[in-house]
Amino acid sequence: MARLNWALERFPLLKRVRQSASTVWAISSLFLFIDTFIYSLTVANLPDILQSQMHVSQSSNGVITTMFGIGGVIGALASGMPSDRLGFRWPFQLIAAVLYIVAGTVFYFSQHYYQLLLFRLINGMASGVACSMLYTTVGDVYPADLLGFKVAIVYFCNNIAYTIGPICGQRLFELHGVRGTASIVIAFGIVEVVLLLTVGEESLAIRRSLSACEKATESPAQKSSTINTLSPQSSSVDDVSHKGALVPDNATMGFVHGCPSISSGEEDSAVRMPVWRLLTQLPVLVSTLSIFVATCIQCTLEALVPLHLSDYFNRSDSTGITFVIFGLALTIL
Predict the structure, then answer these.
(1) Which of 141, 176, 232, 239 is most buried, with most CB under 10 Å away?
(2) Burial of residue 324, with CB atoms counted within 10 A of its CB: 0-12 exposed, 13-18 middle, 19 or more buried
(3) Residue 121's closest CA among 62, 46, 169, 69?
């Protein structure tokens, strides 16, 4: 850490890059690309790996997908809420990067079915941690009225990875077998570790810095307006519950002074609610169910399409192209 502080003082440009909200956005987009690319590398090759090399039943293909889901649940639960309580995200991102390296190493030496299950479990844990943190860090450093565009670009990178991942994985498998694919997983994990140690910064620290900048650039007239708005004469229940109406003024002033505006900690605490209550809100409930159904359909297709092509058309070499078409549809939508 001392060496990092020395480097930041010696190279001001590196310090500005690390403390930029755009860097958080770029890293999140790149890391989600890597996460999905790693996940999709083996999708097209499962029948060849499981049936041709390991000689297990076709029903085992679904278990492989299930292990990834179990790992994802473990990773998400172990990182999402704890990162809020502990007040940091960066260490969890580093853990996810290390888990990719561990998963790739297990995959590299896997010769049995249960080793492949372990690989998918660890890969799922890495993905669960990574995805929870990547979307969250973008939300940490950008205001709500920009999140639609920012998250859309992040997810666009996810769809591009899903488009090219299966066909790249299939080609790697044909040329270098399982170890060729595993080497890519390890390499991407190392890339993430290097980026986090060099240009990655704690998103909550950037958030606090932006909040301080926003308060410092707030004009006296604004402060007076804020005090008047929150005076006892006008602080009805409705006024207090709509404190977010003050944010656009602050956001405008922040961008005028070159300081992007984000919601303050006081506003965050005013809208906190238990998770179970949050899930009962109609927009959240509909979104959760939609994601659940869409993911179920996607996982079902990932398990059945390779088997269908192999059994009915004897074309296991075309599985990658099939997922390219699916990935392109996701990208367009």
Answers:
(1) 141
(2) middle
(3) 69
